[in-house]
Amino acid sequence: MTGADLVRAAVSAVTDPELRRPIGELDMVREIAVDGDRAQVGIVLTIVGCPAAARIESDVREAAASVPGIAAVDVEVGVMTPAERKALTEKLRDGRPARQMPFGPDSLTRVILVSSGKGGVGKSTVTANLAVALADEGLSVGLVDADVHGFSIPGLLGIPAGTQPTRIDDLMLPPVAHGVKTISIGMFLRDGEAVVAWRGPMLHRTVQQFLTDVFFGDLDVLLIDMPPGTGDIAISIGQLLPHAEVLVVTTPQTAAAEVAIRSGLVARQTGQRVIGVIENMAAYALPDGTVIDLFGSGGGAAVAEALSEPGTTVPLLASIPLSPALREGGDAGIPIVAGATKDAAATTILDLARTLARQGRGLSGRSLPMTIG
Questions:
Q1: Cα–Cα–Cα angle for 125, 127, 131, nearest 5°?
Q2: Which of 56, 154, 224, 271 to pair with 241, CA 20 to 30 A apart?
Q3: pLDDT tens digits for range 221-274
Q4: Buried b (16+ CB within 10 A) or exposed e, 208-246
C-alpha cells in the first residue's frame, strides 16, 4: 500500500460522533495525497455548521498523523452536496422509506416503556439511570422522552439547555449523553419557552415524529419515558408500538400502588406486555443501621401481584431505596449509576440493568424479546 492508501485507511476508520459510524463508510472522505512526510486530507461534513465538525477534524488529523512516516497533516473540510446528503440519508435508512417507523414487531430493537400511574414517583429518574446503566452493559441504547408536558430527561442526563438534534434533510440525529442517544421536546423549545400546552393531535404527531424522523441507528434497546397516567400519549404509543414491553414504576405507598396498577392494565389492553415492576423510594438505611420506611412498604409487591395473571407472573424486578445521592445526581445532570456507583440505589439500578441485559441478549449480542414467568 502507498502512503496515501495508509492514510486513507486510517482516516476512513474515524467515527462520526453523531452517526456513530466510520466516516469512510459514510462517504465523507475525499482526496488524499502524501508529499514526503506531509499528508493532505479532504473530508466533507453533512451540513454547514455541523456541531461535531471540530471533533471530526481533530480525530481525522490525529488518525492521519498516526501513520508511520507522516509528520504533518493538512485537513481540508467541505460540505456534502444535496445529492450526497440524499444518498447518505438513504444509506442510513437502509432502504426504509422516509417517515416509516423502524421499531415495528420485526425489528431487532427491544422497546421498553417505563410508565407510572401518577407523577412524583421518580419514573424519569429511574428511566434515565436505567438507560445509562444499560449502555454501560455494552448495549446500544436510545431514549425517547415522551413525557411531553413534564419533560425532564435532558436535565437528568446533563444535556445542556439549547442543545438541539442535528438535521440532515428530514433526518434528526439525537444528542448523545453518557452513551445514550436521547430525544425530548425540551430540545425544540425556543428561548423563553418552558411550557408545552398541547392536546391530543399535537401530542400524537410529536411522539410519532420522534419514532420516525429521529435516526437512532441500530439499537439494542429503546427506552421510552412515558407520561404518568393513561392519557393521550399512552393511547398513541399503544397504537404505534403494541408489541412493546412495559415496566411499571411505583413507590411503596398504597395510594401510588393502586394508581400504578391502572397504567399496567391500560398497556395490556393495547397488547403490550408488562414485564416487571420497579419500586422506587423504598426503605432507607441510616448509617447507624436504622431503617426508615418513609413511604411505607409493600407497594411494589402489591402492584406485581395485581398485574400477574394465571400462567404469567409479573415480577418485582427491583426495589430502589430512597437515596439523597439519586436526587442530587438528577439535579446535577450526573446519573447516580455514573457518578456514585457504590450508593445502594445505584447498585440496585445497575443490578436491574444487568438482569434486563442478560435476559434480553441473544447469541449474536443483539437484544431479543425477554421472557419472564
A1: 120
A2: 154
A3: 999 999 887 777 888 888 889 899 999 999 999 888 988 998 898 888 888 999
A4: bebbbbbbbbebbbbbbbbbbbbebbbbbbbebbeebbb
- Per the CB < 8 A criterion, the answer to whether 42 and 30 are in contact is yes
Which residue(s) pair with 173 in the sheet? 166
Measured CA to CA, the distance from residue 327 to residue 321 in angstroms comes to 12
Range from 7-21, 198-212, 234-248 carrying the lowest mean pLDDT: 198-212
Distance CA 66, CA 64 (A): 5
Cα gap 318→92, rounded to integer Å: 37
Categorize the per-residue pLDDT at 362 as very low, low, confident or very high, splitting at 50, 70 and 90.
Answer: very low
Q: Are strands 38-45 and 72-79 parallel, antiparallel or unpaired?
A: parallel
- Among positive and negative, which fits the CA dihedral 116, 248, 123, 361? negative
Region label for 94, one of left (φ > 0), alpha (ψ between -120 and 50) or beta (otherwise): left
Rounded Cα–Cα distance for residues 235 and 267 (Å): 8
Under 8 Å CB-to-CB from 348, ≥6 apart: which residues? 318, 319, 320, 321
Name the amino acid, one letter, at 178: H
Strand partners, 307: none
Residue 9's Cβ-count burial label (10 Å; 0-12, 13-18, 19+) is middle
d(CA 272, CA 135): 24
DSSP 289-328: S-EE-TT-S-HHHHHHHHH-BTTB---EEEEEEP-HHHHH
DSSP assignment string, 70-106: --EEEEEEEE--HHHHHHHHHHHHTTPPTT--S-STT
Query: Over the Cα atoms of the chain, what is R_g?
Result: 23
- pLDDT tens sequence across 89-132: 988 887 777 777 889 888 899 999 999 988 889 999 999 999 99
pTM reported for the whole predicted model: 0.84
In angstroms, rounded to a whole number, what is the distance separating the alpha carbons of residues 337 and 278? 16
